Amino acid sequence: MSLYSVVVPVYNSEHTLDELYRRLSDVFDHVLKRDFELLLVDDGSKDKSWEIMKKLRAKDSRVKLFQMSRNFGQHPALLCGFHYVKGDFVITMDDDLQHPPEELPKMISVMDARDDVDVILARYEGRKHSWIRKLGTRLSVYATSKMLKKDPDLEITSFRLIRRFIVDAIKDTTVHLPQIGNLLVENSNRIINVDVRHDARAYGHSGYTFRALAKELFYDITTHSAFPLIVVRDIGVFTFTVSLILGIIYLVRYFAVGTSVQGWTSLILVLLASTGLTLLSIGILGEYMMHVLDESKKMPHYVLRQKDL
Q1: pLDDT per position as a tens digit, 54-64
Q2: CATH number of 3-207
Q3: CB neighbours (10 Å) of residue 285?
């Protein structure tokens, strides 16, 4: 009988942890009738999440606890859990109850029937995210499909079912800011979507603001592709060509009609455009150099404060 490891990053989830544990237990004990372990990774919560996690651990030894020293983010929290999983299959899901545990049998049945599939990613029916989150998701899907050369119809989500050998392949990544979805795509092309229900958030609000989504998207682009550099290069070639044509026109005009004050506005506009392009180029190059610096530091993805296995 296969063992399933459920890894859940926890951040300020005191209101949802009890229900998440109860519903997961019901699904595995009474519906699937399979063994599971629940790895809860506290990502620097500021509420009573850790106290509730300890109560769940005291009630059920299948619950494993990890507390990080500060908020490192969802992906480092998942990597932390990946280092301690014992299951043949690994499930990742959020702590806010938007990923219904009752949908797991659907994903597991597909995995059981498909030996040719390494990863199942949930594709949400009636996505309950805000319009900002939906827009960010669409942009991210488009960007990653171009950068990683993946199927543009494949949706990368955080509700996943992964074969253990894939988890073992990515858990020791040395990338400065790892993105689990991208790492999965880079390590296997046997990934499919399965449609599942997506519930509304029961408590609080998402921490994915427009600024956070834009920052993550820009990081993904500058980490996995040279697209911004190529764009700046092409703009530079275009502006150089335009300036060369204008230079020829003004030279002909000089010999034909003599000097003139005309053209002052166009000159200023060209100077402003070229200066702005130069500053933009420097900024993009600086971003790439910062990535190189961050990678060279080899800082840990997370610092584990305590654990209870």
Answers
A1: 999 999 999 99
A2: 3.90.550.10
A3: 13
